[in-house]
Specification:
Layout: E1 7-10, E2 19-21, E3 35-37, H1 41-48, E4 54-57, H2 100-141, H3 143-163, E5 167-171, H4 179-197, H5 202-214, H6 235-255, H7 259-266, H8 288-303, H9 314-324, H10 331-341, E6 349-352, E7 357-364, E8 367-375, E9 387-389, E10 398-402, H11 409-415, E11 423-427
Antiparallel strand pairs: 1-4, 2-3, 2-4, 5-7, 5-11, 6-7, 6-10, 7-8, 8-9
């Protein structure tokens, strides 16, 4: 049924400032959304190249009206306004003359590219967790071999990170594996990104990676029941749990780890205000590597606790750390962490300003305020959904963060928020400006 607030006009009467609605499938046009305000001659030429004779426009949301006597006038630029329905895609601006077939090919290429990137990140994460398990198996049999394998894994990650230039923090799909292996890799990935943002040199990043990956190895010496923190621990159980720090240092010494790495492991539960353990050192006695890993470890434990019922969303975890735990962490490290992760870290469930629901799937660690999001669009199959880059659509922002339980069932099924939050990094590729953006 035709929208009573919109009108069909001849394609030749398009002007800058008109708010248009495309009645095409998302694969049949190169614009990141099907409704937008025209802001350039290039967009007009792209629209005319789609083979349409008429197009629908909304007078009430347009800055100019269709002029019967002047089919192709020269207009004035548009002012920003909101949009009803974004289409989740990030594609290049279509060159003049590109038609629907080329648009479809561009969409498919973009979707395949993002699938390949995700597959690479997931394979790297899986390989890292598998290698971490091998390290654990080698610790008692051959500590030196465990050290070699650890250095090999960390060195590979650091080399990749430094070669990437700007890096994107990528949310992975539901990762198989137990928390004992996914947690140290998560901490290593985020710690390395944070260390890079703080300007650490390659050698220091390698030491940081070793601390982050091996910070919990002492838990291998504990009974299973106390390896994961539980707020229901008895006093005796909590003391036993705390012993994993000392046990980790002992195992690290057997491996022949560098003193700076051993120090970092010993401090991964120390807090800047002296409330941590085992030594209750304050910030002036803490090393940089220990400060970084203590913060990242806390963040991941809030997002991925042993009991999923108390898990926080990444946005909630960041908010809790900043609002309630600020005094526990080094000011400079915490500030850099928040700048790197952004207000809505990957894994956050959000509502956009046009009321659509979305899942934050990646953040550029150098420019985190405009993340990439997977938008719930019932017209697009979940398997074909493309990711919308908010950096390329400046007028489409995030209104608020939500818990997964607040989503309507259709949006919940479509977005499938992760029960376990796992990250890896990939090279940041500058996305071209879209042919149409929400205005």
């Amino acid at each position: 049924m035709e929208d009573s607030k919109s009108k069909l006009i001849d394609i030749q009467r398009l002007r800058k400032g008109m708010f248009v609605q495309l009645e095409l499938g998302w694969m049949d046009h190169p614009f990141p959304m099907g409704s937008f305000k025209i802001s350039s001659d290039e967009q007009i030429q792209t629209l005319r190249s789609l083979g349409l004779t008429q197009i629908r426009y909304v007078p009430s949301r347009s800055d100019v009206q269709a002029d019967e006597s002047q089919p192709t006038p020269n207009p004035t630029p548009a002012n920003p306004a909101s949009l009803d329905a974004p289409e989740p895609a990030t594609v290049p601006a279509a060159p003049q003359g590109q038609g629907a077939d080329q648009a479809r090919q561009a969409r498919l290429a973009a979707r395949l590219a993002q699938e390949r990137c995700l597959e690479v990140c997931e394979r790297r994460f899986f390989d890292a967790t598998r290698q971490y398990k091998k390290v654990g198996e080698q610790l008692r049999l051959s500590p030196q071999e465990a050290k070699r394998q650890s250095e090999e894994l960390v060195g590979s990650c650091v080399s990749e990170l430094l070669a990437n230039g700007e890096s994107v923090i990528r949310l992975l799909t539901e990762v198989s594996g137990d928390r004992s292996s996914t947690h140290p890799i998560n901490v290593m990935v985020i710690a390395l990104l944070l260390g890079k943002s703080l300007g650490l040199e390659e050698a220091d990043l390698k030491d940081l990676g070793m601390v982050a990956m091996l910070h919990d190895i002492g838990k291998l010496e504990l009974p299973d029941r106390v390896r994961s923190f539980d707020d229901q621990f008895t006093t005796a159980e909590y003391r036993m749990y705390q012993e994993h720090v000392e046990q980790g240092v002992i195992l690290g010494q057997r491996m022949g780890l560098a003193p700076v790495v051993l120090k970092g492991i010993s401090q991964h539960h120390e807090m800047a205000d002296g409330s941590g353990f085992p030594m209750r050192h304050k910030v002036d006695r803490l090393e940089t590597l220990g400060k970084i890993v203590a913060l990242v470890n806390r963040y991941d434990n809030l997002c991925n606790p042993s009991r999923l019922a108390i898990a926080l969303t990444p946005h909630e975890a960041l908010s809790v750390i900043f609002a309630q735990m600020k005094a526990r962490f080094d000011t400079g490290v915490l500030g850099a962490f928040i700048r790197m992760m952004g207000v809505y870290p990957p894994g956050s469930v959000v509502q956009l300003v046009n009321d659509r629901f979305a899942l934050v799937v990646s953040v550029n660690s150098s420019r985190p305020l405009r993340p990439r999001v997977l938008v719930h669009d019932p017209q697009v199959p979940r398997s074909e959904a493309l990711i919308l880059d908010l950096e390329q659509v400046p007028e489409l922002g995030i209104k608020r963060s939500l818990k997964a339980s607040q989503l309507p069932k259709a949006a919940l099924d479509y977005l499938s928020p992760r029960q376990r939050i796992c990250y890896f990094f990939e090279r940041a590729v500058e996305a071209p400006s879209p042919a149409g953006a929400e205005q």
